[in-house]
Structure formats: structure tokens, C-alpha cells
Design brief:
This protein is mainly α. The protein has helices at residues 2-23, 32-38, 41-55, 68-83, 86-104. Helix 4 packs antiparallel against helix 5 (86-104).
Length: 105
């Protein structure tokens, strides 16, 4: 029972901490530089989640052309930076990964 109380307590604390930013703080009172810096948080978090999966597919760092995930990721980033549409990146990224995995065995 105490484990569930700990889980509920941590969940409530996390929720209240995140909700306090939304409910009690006026975002227009933040300094302009801080607001501009907040725009980079989602891409940074996404990169932090995706990069280890591309660079370490089997648990060890593998920065070679034999790494199908890394090569497909590079292709996807190149296409996404050119087209700037997330659905195009997905439509290119997944088939390129599947094709590279098929070609590399």
C-alpha cells in the first residue's frame, strides 16, 4: 500500500509543479530571451530521445555506414531540412530504414 501512496504522491507533485507554470505564471512576464530559448526545448528533447536509438542500435556506439538506422536518420534529416514537413520526413524515413535493413541483411 505504501508503494501506491508514493506513486500517487509523486504523480501529484509532478502534476502540480507542471500545472503551476500554466495556471499561476503569466508567460508574457518572462524575459524575451527566456521565451525565445523555450522554443528550442521541444527539438532538443526530441533529439535527445532519437539520437541514442540512431547511434547505438545494439547498445554500443556504432557510427559507421553499416548502421542502417544512422544512415536512414541522416537521409531523413536531409529530406526534412529541405522539405520542412513532418509527414514527408516520416514517409521518407521509414521506407529508407526498411530498405536499408533489407539491403544490409
Amino acid at each position: 500500500m505504501s508503494t501506491w501512496l508514493a506513486i500517487v504522491g509523486v504523480a501529484a507533485a509532478t502534476f502540480l509543479l507542471r500545472a503551476s507554470f500554466i495556471l499561476f505564471v503569466d508567460p508574457h512576464k518572462f524575459p524575451r530571451a527566456f521565451r525565445r530559448a523555450l522554443l528550442f526545448v521541444p527539438p532538443a528533447v526530441l533529439a535527445a530521445i532519437v539520437a541514442p536509438g540512431l547511434a547505438m542500435p545494439h547498445g554500443a556506439l556504432e557510427l559507421t555506414l553499416g548502421n542502417a538506422r544512422l544512415v536512414a536518420g541522416i537521409v531523413t534529416v536531409a529530406v526534412a531540412s529541405r522539405v520542412r514537413h513532418p509527414l514527408v520526413a516520416i514517409a521518407v524515413g521509414m521506407p529508407s530504414l526498411w530498405l536499408l535493413q533489407w539491403l544490409m541483411g
